[in-house]
């Protein structure tokens, strides 16, 4: 009986040693494999550092896998890896992936934006909010410098509705575009070729140098014929965006890396008629129906590159009749006046008071508590 117990013990020890050897082998193999993907990090004079690495050795240029490593320096020659957070870098293939939400953009100069990967959630050894790292490598990102998808100015299968004939009151809401571009980051700054691809717009290729657009700017059709080509010099040039069908979408002027507000910004319908025009010098935005009549006008002011609704807003129906007036003070509506089909005052809203009119004459006054 004792001999059987000793025999079983030897078998168990043998299995234990085998398992230990197997674990050790797998650890060494994994370490050797991951070391091939790691980059050499210089820890000289570094007390605490975060490093973002993306594998760029693939045919599509896009990153397949990456890691973020946090390290601390112990002595002049010794360092300690606190933690490494691996991820499949779907950020480069799908900008809606949750890693995209961790990208933060900081304005480091008036005309230069730097991109960081910032942790909004704890990832093992990473602390919030200081652990962030400038992007390095090839990424596809949400790009708010480009239009969305034709938005208000796409061709319609139906007759364009007249919002005022439908008794709809429209407010002038700023368009906040969001689209995607892909290209190289170096130390968080756009560098080299960047491509704007969108299902409703023509392919646009542009070049950056240290975060500023500098070099050839080309818009191509699906057959790679050139729709438009120009050269940006240190951020100065004329940007034209085209739809997939070859129609011009917008013309925007830039100077030293920022929009040139001394020149108008114009958006076009696919028929090449003007859809919207912003005259920054005169301080007015004008939008048009497809038939060419004015849809609305809005007075604006520009302060520190921020636009405010200041002054009068006018809305018209397709027949050109005035349907609404509003007065704004720094985006706040002071009063609203609506008109009937004969352009007679129908209603006036001021603060908590509403005045109703019939055939141009005051009929009733209501106060809203």
Automatic annotation (TrEMBL):
It comes from the Bacteria. SUPFAM superfamilies: Histone H3 K4-specific methyltransferase SET7/9 N-terminal domain (SSF82185). It holds the Pfam family MORN_2. This is Toxin-antitoxin system YwqK family antitoxin.
């Amino acid at each position: 009986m004792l001999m059987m117990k000793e025999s079983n013990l030897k078998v168990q020890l043998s299995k234990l040693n085998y398992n230990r050897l197997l674990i050790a082998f797998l650890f060494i193999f994994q370490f050797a494999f991951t070391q091939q993907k790691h980059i050499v990090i210089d820890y000289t004079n570094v007390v605490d550092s975060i490093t973002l690495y993306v594998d760029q050795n693939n045919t599509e240029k896009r990153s397949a896998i990456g890691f973020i490593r946090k390290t601390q320096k112990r002595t002049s020659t010794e360092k300690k890896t606190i933690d490494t957070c691996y991820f499949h870098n779907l950020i480069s293939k799908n900008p809606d992936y949750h890693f995209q939400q961790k990208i933060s953009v900081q304005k480091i100069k008036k005309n230069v934006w730097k991109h960081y990967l910032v942790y909004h959630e704890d990832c093992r050894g990473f602390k919030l909010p200081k652990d962030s790292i400038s992007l390095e490598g090839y990424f596809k990102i949400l790009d708010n410098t480009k239009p969305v998808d034709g938005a208000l100015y796409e061709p319609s299968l139906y007759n364009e509705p007249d919002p005022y004939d439908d008794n709809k009151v429209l407010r002038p809401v700023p368009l906040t575009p969001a689209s995607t571009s892909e290209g190289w980051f170096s130390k968080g700054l756009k560098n080299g070729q960047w491509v704007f691809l969108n299902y409703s717009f023509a392919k646009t290729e542009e070049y950056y140098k240290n975060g500023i657009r500098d070099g050839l700017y080309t818009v191509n059709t699906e057959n790679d014929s050139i729709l438009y080509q120009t050269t940006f010099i240190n951020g100065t040039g004329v940007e034209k965006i085209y739809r997939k069908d070859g129609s011009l979408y917008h013309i925007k002027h830039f100077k030293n890396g920022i929009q040139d507000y001394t020149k108008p910004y114009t958006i076009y319908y696919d028929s090449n008629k003007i859809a919207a025009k912003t005259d920054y010098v005169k301080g007015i935005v004008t939008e048009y129906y497809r038939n060419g009549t004015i849809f609305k006008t809005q007075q604006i002011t520009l302060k520190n590159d921020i636009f405010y609704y200041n002054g009068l807003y006018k809305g018209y129906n397709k027949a050109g009749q005035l349907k609404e007036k509003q007065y704004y003070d720094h985006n706040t509506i002071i009063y609203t006046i609506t008109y009937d089909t004969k352009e007679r005052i129908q209603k006036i809203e001021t603060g908590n008071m509403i005045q109703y009119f019939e055939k141009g004459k005051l009929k009733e006054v209501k106060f809203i508590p």
